[in-house]
Amino acid sequence: AAAAGSPDRTAASRPPLVLPLTLSYPNASRVASSRSRRGLAEGGHPSARMRLHDDLLTNGYYTTRLYIGTPPQEFALIVDSGSTVTYVPCASCEQCGNHQDPRFQPDLSSTYSPVKCNVDCNCNSDKSQCTYERQYAEMSSSSGVLGEDIVSFGTESELKPQRAVFGCENSETGDLFSQHADGIMGLGRGQLSIMDQLVDKGVIGDSFSMCYGGMDIGGGAMVLGAMPAPPDMVYTHSNAVRSPYYNIELKEIHVAGKPLRVDPRIFDGKHGTVLDSGTTYAYLPEQAFVAFKDAVTSKVHPLKKIRGPDPNYKDICFAGAGR
């Protein structure tokens, strides 16, 4: 479990928001710009929690269900702490892939309204509506218009549906085009972040938490809003001034109980070490990766080295370990 929030804000009286997570299909890293806030916090207990199933070994990212409009239209969105915009494919999209759910139809929602063009946003060609555009680390992209509507969070949530700004997608490329999930739920720091919108409304505490089931279990839960930390929670510093991303100071990596012989300063680049729930894999500086690879390889030398499943990548794989 990981928690992020602000220690000087207490929100025990506000109902925390609980969303179940379901595993979906493989995808790569994505990060986008955001603003700083959010530290650690505590608060009341969530009202309900769902035990979920699936297996991380056969999937690549986590999704939650979000409901937009009146009546609600359902979407499976990747929970992404490394980006800020929440978006779904629009019915008018000319370049969108085939995803898990039908596209969002603004005309079928009695509560939808476009975000009108203003000095604080980029505008579409006829200057009638605000637009968004994001490009992610794996070179996929998403663009569209901004709308506002009622967003609800499922039957497990104590928080009532809220009006929020989101992206109605008109074009997507790369992994975003081919993925099974409908879109992304941006949890980073930024004006368009669903977290910042709810916090600024004063309806939840300034924190969110995620708990993943693990490699052999899968599933998990997410809470938007403050909640009491487990008694054995371990804390680490995150510098919101240094980076728009949720960062930590990585000091050591151990393999089979022994620390790798690397200078900890190599982990201390521009953004430090970033916690990104929308990234499938862990990424290391080359020096640390080589040391990690060598340490693991030395421990599994009785096993046979084999090619990885994807010919485009030189994965380091072994056969003969059983399950």
TrEMBL record:
Keywords: Aspartyl protease, Glycoprotein, Hydrolase, Protease
UniProt cross-references to SUPFAM superfamilies, sorted A to Z: Acid proteases (SSF50630)
GO process annotations (BP): proteolysis
A GO MF term: aspartic-type endopeptidase activity
Domain of life: Eukaryota
Catalytic machinery residues: 80, 276
Family matches, as InterPro entries: Aspartic_peptidase_A1, Aspartic_peptidase_AS, Pepsin-like_plant, PEPTIDASE_A1, Peptidase_aspartic_dom_sf, TAXi_C, TAXi_N
Name the UniProt record assigns to this protein: Peptidase A1 domain-containing protein
Organism lineage: Eukaryota, Viridiplantae, Streptophyta, Embryophyta, Tracheophyta
